[in-house]
Amino acid sequence: MGQYRSAVCQASEVCCNISQVDESVDVTEGPSDAEDLCGMSNPIGLDANANASEDQAKFGEFPWTIALFHKGQYFGGGSLVSQNAVLMAAHLLADKSEADIVVRAGDWDLSSTEESTPHEERQVSRVVKHENFDVKTGSNNLALLFFESPLPRTAHIRPICMATAERSIDTRCFVAGWGKKTYPDVDYSSILKKIELPIVDRDTCQNQLRQTRLGRSFVLAPSFVCAGGEKGKDACQGDGGSALFCPLADNTSRYEQVGIVNWGIECGAENVPATYTNVAQFQPWIEQQLKLASNEAE
User: Fold this and answer.
1) In which element (H, E) is residue 205 found?
2) Is residue 18 part of a domain?
3) Structurally, how many domains does the chain consist of?
4) Which of 12, 24, 138, 292 has its CA 20 to 30 A from that of 258?
5) Residue 70: CB partners within 8 Å, gap ≥ 6?
6) Is pLDDT of 225 > 80?
7) pLDDT above 90: residue 205
8) Where is the Peptidase S1 domain (predicted)?
9) How many Cα atoms within 13 Å fall on the side-chain side of residue 7?
């Protein structure tokens, strides 16, 4: 199998420590009625002074983007699916205790605390992995992180919609994460990346992956959706667990999550798509877990 897109800090790499929120800074005012919808982005960002390059997201552009920390070190991404739950990849949770995991919402530059609006952090109180997750193949690779104190719903912190149907192959979608820009890179990205990717149909994906070291007998798991295959554009190590999200047909500023970054063969090779957990397939499971958590909280 290819490499999971996890962040593991080596001696030569830099991991970002958790910073304390500055309580003296006022949190952004609550969203408008339109912004109260799931999946609403901020296409021009929320801070004109936060300069972003073409391959970086603007500050606050994708308010559902979550950075995950274990004992103070960044280890992967996730997506906000309710104000007290994050969707992510189960493979990231190996050898990690929920007591040591913190989710950070509303951040952009992990190396700075000077952003115009502060991020929010929550201690994870419960972890729910999919019961059929297979670590060898990456099948059913998803999990939910719950925290007792809900995040505020603001312009730079709000949930993504979840896809309920398969996406057509003419769709171009995005991944936003803090992973490496290219496979040989030593360090992860401090500023949130923005990667545009095409959806790849299952037959093409399986055939292209069979041309790699996976071999001619490789079979694409039913729980996967594929994206990528364009040279130099790809999720990479450290992006594991982040959302693959696509614009809704009737609103190019509103998005739904179709995948979770799973694994790939290195990063950014032409005609080598990467695999993502198919969110539409697991939407009933996600909704069930969210409902169970809500009932337990009452």
Assistant:
1) helix 202-210
2) no
3) 1
4) 292
5) 96, 100, 101, 102
6) yes
7) yes
8) 37-291
9) 30
- Structural domain contains residue 207: yes
Paired residues of 201 in beta bridges: none
Q: Which of 291, 285, 168, 265 is nearest to 225 (CA)?
A: 168
pLDDT in tens, 24-59: 333 344 445 555 789 999 999 999 888 899 999 999
Residue length of the chain: 298
- The band of 298, judged by pLDDT with boundaries at 50, 70 and 90, is low
CATH number at 236 reads 2.40.10.10
Q: For the chain, what is the largest distance between any 2 Cα atoms, rounded to a whole number of angstroms?
A: 59
Tracing tokens 């949930």 back to the chain, one arrives at 159
The verdict on residue 145 lying in a domain is no
Structure tokens at 205: 């994906």
* Closest by Cα among 216, 271, 270, 225 to 245: 225
CB atoms closer than 10 angstroms to residue 245: 26
- The answer as to whether 213 is a domain residue is yes
Q: Look up the domain containing 247 and give its range.
A: 161-281
